[in-house]
Amino acid sequence: xxxxxxxxVTYTMVAHWGExxxxxxxxxxxxxxxxxxxxxxxxxxxxxxxxxxxxxxxxQIRFGHAAQVNLVGQLGKYLxxxxxxxxxxxxxxxxxxxxxxxxxVALLLAAGMSIVTAGTVGALAAPSLSxxxxxxxxxxxxxxxxxxxxxxxxxxxxxxxxxxxMRRLELDANLRGKHVTLxxxxxxxxxxxxxxxxxxxxxxxxxxxxxxxxxxxxxxxLAMAAGFVAFILPSGIGVREAILVAGLSPIASVSQALAIxxxxxxxxxFADLLSALGGLIASRITLRTRAGGHIAETRALSEHRGGK
Length: 308
Known about the structure:
Helix content: 55-70%
Order of helices and strands: HHHEHHHHHEHHHHEE
Structural class: mainly alpha
Strand content: under 5%
Number of strands: 4
Largest sheet: 2 strands, antiparallel
Distance between the termini: 43 Å
Shape: globular
Strand order of the largest sheet: 1-3
Low-confidence stretches: none
Radius of gyration: 20 Å
Number of domains: 1
């Protein structure tokens, strides 16, 4: 399946190479830099989401070290099955003394939070997509209902289910509401920056408007969420592009939207590598300048053995 999808995407990229090249040509080098920086900024927001969720469970770590674990570890998503990104990040966290169970649970909660906020942002596209998707588009308005799962008491129950599955210590107290709220806000921030990078890529199609930006933000949010759900495929390849093409249908033809989706994929890969390198460098700098300050501090929330 992976080889078939990768082959299909490669064939499609070659077949539409002219549109991809045209998409890049109409962008100035300044726009290209801003586009990559927007993607990198969204990744930094994702690091903050994970960092705050760890803090919500009582484990504190510096941003530079969280960036190394999160950004370097996420390169595992390019292997079939998104599980490798989780395994790699949990392994990297060991050098900073982050409890493995908490690292994994924070990653799972961050992924779930990303899907919930994506559904909320995706609801903004319902009016625009109703013309091309028909009545199905209005189902996107159900997306914000997922926000109820971010309430600390319910989110704590979800976290304990994951912890119980790993046979680790469960949390007695609720996750800290302040940090859960901050994590959710950073998650929304990630979609703001990702929407910006798609909006910049659409500059070759028509005059850029605020409405067009909202559509771009909603489209990439839905596409990324769908790509994550399709965890069997490396980095959601194929699925993400298909949803993004459908989401951009009100402002672009299929070939134009496909060119933007493929250009986005190329820039994303570059930004992934750049951000991972940046996270590694930032972490190494703080390791050298702050002796002993690289170890995560785990405290607070009382715990008890699962099943007892």
